[in-house]
């Protein structure tokens, strides 16, 4: 009977992780179907087909892979911390590469079509998100994966790093929603209100992205799903507690 609550918690966690993966993969697939079937497919030739690479790469990189990179600390909570850090960094690197490809594609298309850059709210939010994502990855690399900072600095930055990871996921989902709306208004504005198949599919995609973000947020903020402490994390906790209490932590 005493183990029933932890078992239920583990079962709920596994179920929610599964739901998050279904939502994330479905979002990527729907983006591919939207761009491939309704928008003419993909190419790298300065045409609208090159633009179609942009939403697919952004949903795959800044939303799905970014979310999964955050989730590895919950899923692999019994694996050595160093291995999980490495996996976290690699997935984030893949997300960064995909995002850069997506940005290059849209700028290349704009250049070929003589369309102005960086005038919409979507583009401002997207650029801000990408720049902060790059900064977050570099800071994580220097502070945690290949630390060059002292334990005192790592302890003070750790909660900021965790918060920024979730904040960037929220920004990525929000920017994606702006992009979906912008694309629909540019391409099917006269028929959008008539529940055309493309419009309905894009709306469903937006709902899936929101649900993916909500499930990830729930998994990352529930205390019972946290990774069990290990000596490294305990050291960081001690340093952070000393820091917040106004003391002067020592470097091990």
TrEMBL record:
Its cofactor is heme b. This is Transmembrane ascorbate-dependent reductase CYB561. It catalyses: monodehydro-L-ascorbate radical(out) + L-ascorbate(in) = monodehydro-L-ascorbate radical(in) + L-ascorbate(out); Fe(3+)(out) + L-ascorbate(in) = monodehydro-L-ascorbate radical(in) + Fe(2+)(out) + H(+). It is a multi-pass membrane protein. One of its GO terms (cellular component) is chromaffin granule membrane. It is found in: Cytoplasmic vesicle, Secretory vesicle, Chromaffin granule membrane. Pfam families: Cytochrom_B561. It comes from Maylandia zebra.
